[in-house]
Amino acid sequence: MSAPTDDITVAKGPPGVDPAILHRPGGSVDAPTQLALYRQMVRMRKFEKRAYDLFLQNLVKGTSHLSLGQEAIAAAFGVAMDEKDYTFATYRGHAHTLARGTSMTGVMGELLGRSCGVLSGKGGSMHLTDVKRGVMGSYAIVGAHLTIALGAAWSAKHRGDPRVAVAFFGDGTTNIGAFHESLNLAAVWKLPVVFVCENNLYMEYTPIRTVTAVDNPAADRASAYGLDSIVVDGNDADAMYLTARECLERARSGGGPSLIEARTYRTSGHSRADPGKYKPEEEVAAWAAYDPIDLYRARLLAHGVGEADLDAVDETADSDVQTATVEAQASPPPGLDLLMHHVWSDGGSSWRN
Fold first, then answer.
1. What pLDDT does 277 receive?
2. What is the enclosing helix (H) or strand (E) of 231?
3. In the prediction, which pLDDT does 348 show?
4. Is 6 contained in some domain?
5. Which DSSP category does 224 fall into?
6. Contact residues for 51 (Cβ-Cβ < 8 A; gap 6+)
């Protein structure tokens, strides 16, 4: 492996993770890209905090799953991916959708069930989709989207289209049959797909380590399908970006699939109804001290970025979130024309009467 990208990563690393197993991608991240990564993470964090506030006001329809603490993964891929690449996300997909450039008002409107939502308010938090931006859906069934990402990658290869499908999933998915079936076919057919396991240590309320025979639930299975074992610091935006770029370039050039296990931590519960009391206090504290945004801000300051410049990013994100909130709340709920659109093959329900 090449030298580590930054001394901060070497000195600390994710809590409970042996630094020796971490993937150390080569290359460096230039200043404009670092600012883009910071901007993405801050926008995601502030958006989800506002979404949680709206939950408490009973304005968000249905349940929702936040990725607070996991922003570096979505940000890294959002910056590294080509605009024509495909994103397949889980029900914890707000950040991944925003990462591809989807309108913040569109996402907020969808959470609030308003007609300005990316799906006209019909899908809600768990089904965010923006095909124009390459966001091919957020999926509520664990592991279901991996096979669909496989199909998208096969289609791109068949058409000679240099697109890459990227499928994000949680650690619990690694014990689902679709995970193993998808890895096997992706390797056999040498498809342009990148599988990204966001290992936040918990499959819903259960620690992944208590129900899995290997220490690294994704990476330790990679060799069974002829793939490299890649464990990366999921809270280090630079390491994540360089790893994402490395795997995307490999897929795009015909080198086949990759499987990345990104070690991270969700600071909230599984969903809005979960207070997360099953997490040990010392574990929560250790990861709170390893927050991806705090770490990255400190790194940028150490590299000479002005504090005023970073403050300006924060202020812009606050303004964008406020604008999205106001616009979404001002948007009406969808009427029958929008609610019934794309539900029946002829575009409406009148044939049933």
1. 84
2. strand 230-233
3. 60
4. no
5. G
6. 60, 64, 66, 94, 108, 111
Cα distances from 321 to residues 168, 169, 186, 232, in angstroms, run: 25, 26, 38, 30
Q: Where are the beta strands (DSSP E) in 70-190?
A: 86-90, 135-139, 165-170
For 206, left (φ over 0), alpha (ψ -120 to 50), or beta? beta
Q: What pLDDT score was predicted for residue 50?
A: 96
Tell me which residue range forms the domain holding 240.
21-352
Looking at the 3D structure of the chain, how many domains does it have?
A: 1
Whether 10 maps to a domain, the answer reads no
Looking at the domain assignment, is residue 135 inside a domain?
Answer: yes
- Give the DSSP letter of residue 90: E
Averaged over successive runs of 10 residues, the pLDDT of the chain (353 residues) comes to: 42 85 94 98 97 91 89 98 97 96 97 96 93 96 96 97 97 96 98 98 91 96 97 97 98 98 91 82 94 97 96 98 98 88 68 57
pLDDT at residue number 341:
78
The residue among 165, 184, 170 whose CA lies nearest residue 142 is 170
| Closest CA relative to residue 277, chosen from 205, 198, 172, 171 | 205
Q: Is the pTM of this model over 0.90?
A: yes
CA distance 194 to 96: 14
Residue 328, CB half-sphere, CA atoms under 13 Å: how many? Answer: 31
CA atoms within 13 A on the CB side of 113: 12
Cβ-Cβ contacts under 8 Å for 188 (sequence gap 6 or more): none
CATH code: domain of residue 202: 3.40.50.970
Q: Is residue 2 part of a domain?
A: no
From the number of C-beta atoms within 10 Å of its C-beta (0-12, 13-18, 19+), residue 267 rates as middle
